[in-house]
Fold:
Amino acid sequence: MTRLAGRTALVTGAASGIGRAIACRFAAEGALVVVADLDDGENSARDGGAPTARAIAEAGGRAIFQRTDVTEESEVEALFAAARQASGRIDILVSNAGTFRGNPILATTPANWDADMDLNLRSHYLVNRAAIAAMAGEEARADGIRGRIVNMASQLGVTAPPGHLTYSVAKAGIAQMTRQLAVDYAREGILVNAIGPGRIITGYHPGEAEYVASGTIDAATAYSLARTPFPRLGRPDDVAGAALFLASDDCTFVSGHLLMVDGGWTAY
Amino acid sequence: MFALTDKIAVITGAASGIGAATARRFAHAGAHVVLAAYSPDGHDVDRVRADVAAAGRQAMVVETDVGQTPSVDALAAAALARFGRIDIALANAAIARRKPSLELDDRSWEQTLGIDLQGVWRLFRAVLPAMRDAGGGRLLATASTAGPFEAWEAHVHYSAAKAGIVGMVRSLAAEVGPLGITVNAIAPGIIETPQTLDSVNSLGAGGIAETGRTQPVRRIGKPEDIAAAYHFLASDDASFVTGHTLLVDGGRMLIRG
Structure:
């Protein structure tokens, strides 16, 4: 498949889970993938940015890994510099890096509010700002498009997950940033969209590893399964398929949209 | 996977505009296409049939009035008789009739709702048993920004129908999700089609050109923009997307301009 042939895609949080699935899918579609993650993989047998890039290369794709803390402006600048050096042009950004954490308001402090917002909202701002600066300076392609951005929001930015204040506020913020940037840069040919994943089994959250390995289901996973109209929970590849549409030449007239990939959770 | 190799797709309103573009797109992706068309509209479905055939796929034209239950049931039966299954059903046929609300009588209301809303339901209902028996399928419908997301003066009936599709898609997705069937809609913004080019009942050429200048992307849409999004929703890449209405409007609803 060659739907992203000749394109360069930068994917943050690509060491594992959804980000890794996106990086691998985009590479399989012909993109040069810039894998960005804080985790370089030195301490893990399977996760990490370097292992993701290696897996892509072993499958015949092209990828480079740049260890990046997306909460640090200087590291985001270094990431984009490395991407430019590798390819000369950034066509696609998938701003995916983030961590599921949050507390009820009385369990938060101003300090951990700031820390959570730095990680799950401000980092997306930094990466989007750098991407738009890079894309706006490029020649438009034949279809008038200079670049496509896909931001990872969440079902939990549309619903209100009990006890996860900072997470849901940050994810709602990502969706609104997506709308704002879509309006502000449509004229420049930059399409900005977001994905709202539902319960995606990445194997990293409590109970998921056992569910994946043996089908043993804990209470939280069982609830998610019961609550999702589709007869299974999500997979990282489900999100990768949606991200591919939004990043591909088939996305021509969609901008500012929050595409839910949730098996019907928010519809129900 | 993105390919639709040997999938069977039924599309209503397939003779023109979004339906015709989607039929061509599906055929190029490998699907065989059942083209439901209503000949009194005067669109040339034979050109669409020829394009599907030129893509090396099978095309079947079925004269269909989506306002009549027996006609839609016969469409589904004909598709099943020919191909044995239906993987994708796109309820796309619709009419738009300008009617100031003080003149909107029962007949006008019932005609538009009967085609634009009940027509969608007739197709979904007709294909659901086959999809249930097959263990899955894709139900798709063309909604609109007008109704669920924005106002359109003198089109209260059309707006009610299109908003109704969004609600139908949500509730049906919840109900048939356990059967492995996904249900989604696209809400197109301003797309250049025979319908929008009708200056009596819609914007007309001048109106859509003016609208294009005020939209974030500075152009109006083409049927192919919608067809590409339908291709995604019909493919395995959208396996976990259901109950969703995908806006394909060039960002129009963000500024309501």
Notes: Chain B has a mean pLDDT of 96. Residues 8-192+224-250 of chain B form a domain with the Rossmann fold fold (CATH 3.40.50.720).
